[in-house]
Input
Amino acid sequence: MKTVLSGVKPTGVPHIGNYFGAMKQFVQLQEQGNELFIFIADYHALTSVHDAAEMRANTRSVALDYLGVGLDPARIALFRQSDVPEVTELSWILGCVCPKGMMDRAHAFKDAQAKNESVNIGLYTYPVLMAADILIYDADLVPVGQDQKQHVEYAQDLQEKFNHTFSCDALKRPEPMIGALSATVIGLDGRKMSKSYDNTIELFEPKKSFDKKIKSIVTDSTPVEEPKDPENCSVFKLYKLFDPAGAPALAEKYRAGGMGYGHAKNFLIEAADRELNPHRERRAKFEADPSLVEKILADGAEKARAKACKTMERVRKAVGIS
Ligand code: TYM
Output
């Protein structure tokens, strides 16, 4: 049994990239009987969301999405990052052994700088808080998409640096588990699916607009009757995620010719419905019971906090502030 830790930022609502890159794996790891700590990364979202109503709505939406995809609060800790404030204490302490150059090299910061976006200190030190998230729960495994790999490596570096600096073994080394289903899910335009590219399909997008977005996926102009290359087609790449077992048969149809992209898109819609309909139904049930969702998050926070407090006892002792 492994201890698994991961989170999704409530900066918008989760999309298909978050699902196949991360959330679906959480459910698989839960089904394998691991100890899971899964949270809503609201402190991290604060680096860009500066509207309380938006933060509350997004947080609630991520909670419902987690429950919708099948995370079971009876077996795992499902919680809001900010309900375990000890993580900010660990973040500060890790920051005190973190070389500044590490933050200067962090992708998220460098990207924002390259785009001339204003960078707040929260964004700059984002990887330190993320390392604290990971290390405070003694995580063995961190399932994330490719774009978060550097952050998990920073958590490894900071774990080593902390234990070495204070000659202790207070913190445990985590390992990344990069996109077992898909390291990078592509979006409507063929680039990485991301809110910042405006190319996402929301995981729980209402069916009508979900289907409309699938129909809008960019394809090439190969005529219907001609053979097509499935591996070069965004529709096929998404289909493979929703229905890996059925993908070879669809690939055959591409190669044989006589099938237009419109047909392929219909197959994709059907496969997505088969996967998502049970999730849609489960989510709707939780959505109808807001106090239950609040209770689930409160119970999850209690479980998470108990573990975090134990780590913090070791950490405070190691640095001499207990
Ligand atoms: P976030 O909210 O941007 O994304 C949540 C998860 O979805 C994955 N992901 C993708 N995977 C494949 N293809 C894509 N197109 C795609 N887009 C997103 C991300 O890699 C991620 O696993 N910093 C994190 C949240 C966080 C966290 C943590 C995660 C905070 N603390 C501790 C793990 C451990 C983030 O912004 O993820």
